[in-house]
Specification:
324 residues; alpha+beta; four-stranded mixed β-sheet; 11 strands; Endonuclease-I; endonuclease
């Protein structure tokens, strides 16, 4: 163990990376750090919460009560969650964990207790932002997209969700942040992103330059995490087919030992093996080449091919119910 620690220290020295003692080791600690170090003065600002721009009053160590009138918010269905601040994973925890073996064996709770990589991703402060609980619940693990025909659902709040398509469109004011956080997480942790999602976020990245708050937020988080989002600072750009740096899986800039970050991330069946994952454009259901008996039965006119199950789900498809 002593040799491993010394090796890790030498890697840090050579690469110029810094590990800060204050970098959160869990989602719960990340929320507290975000309140104390990043959003401590934002509750009454014009920026407001992520999806609706509402103001709030801090309560407890990392929670808060929403001032619904401050942004003209109207409750859609869940008045309890509409009243409170929750911490949204811009890249959903489901996306972070679904590609890993721990998720297959016990879901999110199992990943939190058994997988150090998942804990690092789940606690990454760049990917977290306060928002209204009801909107957080409605967004679920849906992909982002454009919903021009979906009516308003929360009064004056412009964020909308299409539950049938499993798509959420955030308000324009945060599309800059959303896009560059997506780039950051997929680059840093080697996550898969569909071509459709890449094109969407590249468009938002061009349309919405980084705001003063996005840059300040990045600066504050970097003081805790020990690294910036390079897609905010301009050190890195995303192009179609971008090759991820996977820096978050090497131990650089984290307090997780290098040898533990190399755990296998995914089962071959989840990725579809060498054969493509087949989606049905009519039913929005996808089939894996292994374990899905209807894989060969999708009509040619309705066939959509994906490189992986992750890409299919990012495009709004769900797994066929008869897959084993």
């Amino acid at each position: 163990m002593k040799k491993i620690v010394l090796f890790f220290a030498s890697v840090i020295a050579m690469t110029g990376q810094h590990v800060l003692a204050g970098a959160p080791e869990s989602f719960e600690k990340a929320k507290i750090a975000l309140r104390e170090k990043v959003y401590f003065d934002r509750q009454t600002s014009d920026v407001g919460d992520l999806y609706c721009g509402c103001r709030w009053t801090w309560m407890g160590r990392s929670g808060g009560r929403i001032d619904l009138k401050s942004c003209g918010y109207e409750v859609r269905a869940d008045s309890n969650r509409a009243q409170r601040i929750e911490w949204e994973h811009i890249v959903p925890a489901w996306v972070l964990g679904h590609q890993r073996q721990c998720w297959q064996k016990g879901g999110r709770e199992n990943c939190k207790t058994s997988d150090p990589v998942f804990r690092v991703m789940e606690a990454d402060m760049h990917n977290l932002s306060p928002t209204i609980g009801e909107v957080n619940a409605d967004r679920s693990n849906y992909s982002y997209g454009v919903l021009p025909s979906t009516p308003a659902q929360y009064g004056a709040c412009p964020t909308r969700t299409d539950f049938k398509q499993r798509v959420t469109e955030p308000r324009d004011a945060v599309k800059d942040l959303v896009a560059r956080v997506q780039f950051y997480m997929h680059d840093r942790y080697g996550l898969s992103m569909s071509r459709q999602q890449q094109q969407l976020f590249m468009a938002w990245n061009r349309m919405y330059p980084a705001s003063d708050w996005e840059r300040e937020r990045d600066r504050r988080i970097a003081q805790v995490m020990g690294h910036h989002n390079p897609f905010v600072t301009g050190e890195r750009t995303w192009t179609l087919g971008h090759k991820p740096s996977r820096e978050g899986l090497t131990g650089q800039g984290t307090s997780t030992p290098v040898h533990r970050l190399a755990e296998p991330p995914v089962q071959v069946a989840e990725q579809g093996g060498s054969a493509p994952v087949i989606g049905n454009s009519a039913s929005k259901v996808y089939h894996l080449p292994v374990g899905c008996p209807s894989y060969e039965q999708v009509q040619e006119k309705n066939r959509v091919s994906f490189d992986s199950a992750v890409d299919a789900e990012a495009a709004g498809f769900r797994r066929a119910g008869n897959c084993r």
